[in-house]
Amino acid sequence: MQPRDLSSHVAYEAGRGIEEVARELGLDPDDLVKLSSNENAFGASPDAVAAIREFAPRVHGYPKTSAADLRDRLGDRWSVSSGQIWLANGGDGALDYLARAMLDPGDPVLVPEPGFAYYGMSARYHHGTVRSYPIRKADDFEQSPERILDSYEDERIVYLTSPHNPSGSELSREDVETIADGTDEETLVVVDEAYGEFSETPSTIPLLEPRDDVAVLRTFSKAYGLAGLRLGYAVVPAEWASAYARVNTPFAASEIACRAGLAALSDDEHVERSVDGVRWAREYIYENLRAETWESAGNFVLAAVKDGTAVSEAAQKRGVIVRDTTSFGLPQCIRISCGTREETKRAVEVLNELV
Ligand SMILES: *Cc1c(COP(=O)(O)O)cnc(C)c1O
Asked: Can you list the domains of the chain with their CATH numbers?
């Protein structure tokens, strides 16, 4: 037998890992600088790590109170009810819950191109079809509500990314409002704020108070440094928040993830340190990399090069792993995640030899 027709599905291409590259090149993993997956260069919140250790002996129990407590805490933080917080296995898991809740078979969704691959993957898993709107390099990746609406044809979900991966461009709350106003009542606008902490633009979550057609995605993977733990959530309108119980995979946000998430939320100092480090690294890259760059509100910078694959492969041989954005449809760019000062300086030095 065979699985269903998966020919329109595409596999997720993750940034390359340290161990993988070290093994392939015969290098020591400690000599490599990995700036390819937008992970937190400052590591996880130490309080989250302490919570992981503390609760390790408790993993024989299902996460009930911890998940409830985390939903309460996040609800307080965003001034929404805890029911509006859809906890999930990473932001990716929350994207799945939104697709499960919204899509009937054959329903179309609209995704940014270039953009985060998982929007389309998730929609296809849920028997949806995928169309895209362009975010053009020729326009410096500017995201204009008018142009996004030009591509809109009554799709069931429109995915927005702000800050946008891989360019770092943004949409304001007013822009999101314009898009939500310009789409059908039965179209959900999903605003992916995975990099929201690194931006000075306020979150779109307050739009959910009057509206029932906007949902916002947040994650613990980036500013909180918990990518390996898999914890994220959607904030959804009160009107249909109760659908969570009918679409979520039971206990997908694990006991350890929920405990670490609670601890990380109280560790403002770690988030501040991470955000400050990212601001420094972005400026350093703009000023010192001898290539055209685009101003980014995320923890990464996109840079123009002649051949993204060639430059990233050559950098890798010199121990610096950056993201070749060819799989995003940008073969003449690379994306450099913000590292520590030392890592960022080394990356820029190596890249300057190659561009
Ligand atoms: C990293 C990322 C996410 C979420 O990742 P998770 O690790 O699943 O939380 C979502 N959207 C974008 C654009 C991202 O870059």
From this structure: 18-44+268-354 (3.90.1150.10), 46-265 (3.40.640.10)
